Amino acid sequence: MDLNRYRLGFHIAPQRGWLNDPNGLCQFRDAYHAFFQYNPEWPERDTKHWRHFVSNDLFHWSDHGTALVTDIPEDRSGVYSGSAFVERGTASDGGDLMCLYYTGNVIYEGGKEAGYDYVHSGREANEILVTSEDGEAYSAKNVLLRNADYPDVCTEHVRDPKVWEQGGTRYMLLGARDLDDEGFCLLYESADGIEWHIKSQIYSEHKFGFMWECPNVVLGESKDFLAVCPQGLASEELRWQNLWQAGYFPLDDSILNTVLVDESRFVEWDHGYDFYAPQIFTDEAGRQILIGWMGSFGQDWTVTPYGLDWCHCLTVPREIRIGVDGSLRQLPVAELDALREEPVTLAPNTAVTLAAHRADLLLEGIVGEGSLVLDGALSISYAKGLLTVAFADADVAAGRPARSVPVEGLSDLRVLVDTSAVEIYANGGAHVFSTRWFPLADELSVSSSFAGEATAYPLADAMAHAFD
Fold it and tell me: Closest Cα partner for 441 from 354, 383, 348, 328?
């Protein structure tokens, strides 16, 4: 089989090697920048760097190579995750300055024989700043925080700085694990982005996982949302079904005034199968945009078909909006519509064949129960109050079991198919599923039994140039 069939047309993916967490997302000097965790030596070694992609429209991305590598003692075991902050007008030419904050990972050699458990001993988590005036050349690395700078309650699991500004003050969220193996966040503040001081610690009312990774914030008019990836939640039949969870806590106030969250209100961003470590940034139009890692770790089915020399991708950029019920909605940013080609009507119970596995499927005005089926292999169905995603073909599924979530009525579905990636948005983005799949057919077959208006838009390949 020609494995090039699984190359993606509008998702970020590496030309070769391993991709994981999105990092340093920003709009800087009229272009969008996306970095991601990158291991070019996968699967033989596991050393993480930052790879760099650039776009003018969030879909036609160009690969600008490996940006940050492990080249100082404080990040010698990996350039781990972090975020971007755009400092206005402080570059030498009077333009904006890109500030990249990340965790430099250090793992001591010796293992258990040296007394290291790599939670309480044996590692360093260093928060590091790198700047750039053009998004291509980078300054020397400035180590801002080390193990000794964190509160005494912390283990050595502290990482993933998210930096933003409010009211002239810069803030940094860090994910952390305490001495009782409870996940929480550290909130720091700074006047200049260099000198940081602890402001608060944010816990849940009851223990909610042993570590909170990749913290982020969604800012509302009066109430914010704290996003985290709580590790250690046990999967249940209708929630927390991913290998590792990612979601958000609705807050009752500004995050700056929050020290305790209600874990019973935790909402998952994405019901899977392949989703973790989302990062959120605000663009120049004021949109809060989320991009997640469309992958995971810890199971064979999270990888790729045998022989593929690249692994994982990022989700499409999703605009976050606050729904009338106070919860968050995610939908692909509007720029995706520019990739649409001539529409094809989907009549109920009639199969339509599209020339390629790149499509934007839109079902509106849904009444009652039904299903949407791709290639006879992947079904998205609604029945008895459950929205279910299931694979009928084990080869296409690559081990992924069925997933269901409770939904009080289904009004619309939007499904993005991009060769080996599928993203599903239900009820205006209130419920989202992301999965890799590896179709065997050359053409895409689509059939729907839902009542309502259904349209299939073939999508142009926005990334062909990246893999020439």
Answer: 354
340-467 in CATH: which number?
2.60.120.560
Whether 352 and 443 have beta carbons less than 8 Å apart is answered as no
C-alpha dist (Å) from residue 315 to 8, 174, 275: 11, 23, 8
Q: What is the 3-state secondary structure (H, E, C) of 381-411?
A: EEECCEEEEEECCHHHHCCCCCEEEECCCCC
Q: Where are the domains of the chain?
A: 14-334, 340-467
At residue 402's C-alpha, the angle toward residues 398 and 406, to 5°, is 150
- Per-residue buried b or exposed e for 58-96, using 16+ beta carbons within 10 Å of the residue's own CB: bbbbebeeebbebeeebbebbbbbbbbbbeeeebeeeeb
Q: HSE (CB half, 13 Å, CA atoms) of 2?
A: 6
71 as an active site residue: the answer is no
Q: How far is CA 455 from the centre of its chain?
A: 28
In the numeric block, which tokens belong to residue 82?
């972090």
Rg (CA), the chain: 22
* pLDDT in the model for residue 300: 66
Q: In what order do the strands lie in the sheet with 123-132?
A: 78-87, 97-107, 123-132, 142-145
Q: How many CB atoms lie within 10 A of CB 236?
A: 8
**Whole-number Å distance between alpha carbons of 465 and 452:** 37
Strands 169-178 and 183-190, by their bridges, are antiparallel
CA angle 235/241/247 to nearest 5° reads: 100
Contact 448, 404 (CB under 8 A): no
Q: Please, what is the end-to-end C-alpha distance for the chain in angstroms?
A: 20
For residues 142 and 134, the answer to whether their CB atoms sit within 8 Å is: no
Q: Residue 41: what residue type?
A: E
Provide the token pair at 67.
Answer: 């940006």
Exactly one of 2, 21, 57, 325 is catalytic; name it: 21
Per-block mean pLDDT, blocks of 10 residues, the chain (468 long): 87 95 97 97 90 98 97 98 97 97 97 94 98 97 98 98 96 98 98 98 98 97 96 93 94 97 97 94 97 86 79 97 93 98 93 96 96 96 97 84 94 97 97 94 95 95 83
Phi then psi for residue 42, to 5 deg, are: -60, 140
Q: Which CATH class is domain 14-334?
A: mainly beta
pTM score, whole prediction: 0.97
